[in-house]
TrEMBL record:
It holds the Pfam family TusA. CDD domains: SirA_YedF_YeeD. It comes from the Bacteria. It comes from Virgibacillus halodenitrificans (Bacillus halodenitrificans). Residues 7-31 form the UPF0033 domain. This is Sulfurtransferase TusA family protein. Belongs to the sulfur carrier protein TusA family. Gene3D superfamilies: TusA-like domain (3.30.110.40).
Length: 75
């Protein structure tokens, strides 16, 4: 999936993937997509909940070799 910005949050534990995602989203315009890669197992539930609470949409997510990948569309 094509994204407008990429965030590498691998190696960070909760809450840093969410904190870094929130900061990265500030640079995007509404409708643009942020791709996030994280290794923290809690990222799946944390980022999904954070996106929903902010009105953003997780367009796609995947897991590959222990890396959780998210494509989040800014509200």
């Amino acid at each position: 999936m094509k994204s407008n910005k990429f965030l590498d949050a691998k190696g960070f534990a909760c809450p840093m993937p969410v904190v870094r995602t929130k900061k990265a989203m500030e640079d995007l315009n509404s409708g643009e997509i942020l791709e996030v890669h994280a290794t923290d197992k809690g990222s799946k539930s944390d980022l999904t909940a954070w996106a929903k609470s902010g009105g953003h949409t997780v367009v796609q997510d995947a897991e590959e070799d222990g890396v959780f990948k998210f494509w989040i569309k800014k509200a």
